[in-house]
Amino acid sequence: MTAQSLFIAVAVGVVTGVVGRLLAGRSRSVPVWLPIAAGVAAAVLATVLAWMSDALRPGLSDLAILLQVLFAAAGVAIVVATADRPEPARRRSPVGGPGHPARKGQMR
């Protein structure tokens, strides 16, 4: 694995993260940095896996770039799809109901 392959992995991850964030739209409450970080991490993971599978071949291969793009796209898609889950609504008991102390001067 070379510095060039890691630099390309970071670039692929950043570009994929930005594109994924733009495609998600403003209606999703995903932080801007989260898809970018997921894209970079997935692309670097793909680079490591490609290097491990083809360690004797010098330089960057087409397989490594293809894996970087696929892994980064999958990572960004998973993050964007799961990061915007709203919390379930909590039910509030009426004042004086179970779980709430009675008001001062109010009998239970």
Descriptive report:
Helices cover 59% and strands 0% of the residues. The protein has 3 helices and no strands. Helix 1 packs parallel to helix 3. The longest helix is centred in the first third of the chain and has 22 residues.
Q: Tell me, what's the shape?
A: elongated
Radius of gyration over all CA atoms, rounded: 23 Å
Percent in strands? under 5%
Unreliable residue runs = none
What percent of residues adopt helix (DSSP H or I)?
55-70%
Mean pLDDT: 79
First-last Cα distance: 72 Å
Main structural class: mainly alpha
H-E string: HHH
Main sheet, how many strands, which sense, barrel? none
Query: How many beta strands in the DSSP annotation?
Result: 0
| Number of helices, counting only DSSP H or I runs of 4 residues or more | 3
List the helices and strands and how they pair.
Blueprint: H1 3-24, H2 33-53, H3 62-82
Task: Name the descriptors.
108 residues; mainly alpha; 3 helices; elongated
Q: Could you write a compact summary of the structure shown?
A:
It is built from three helices and no strands. The protein has 108 residues and is mainly α.
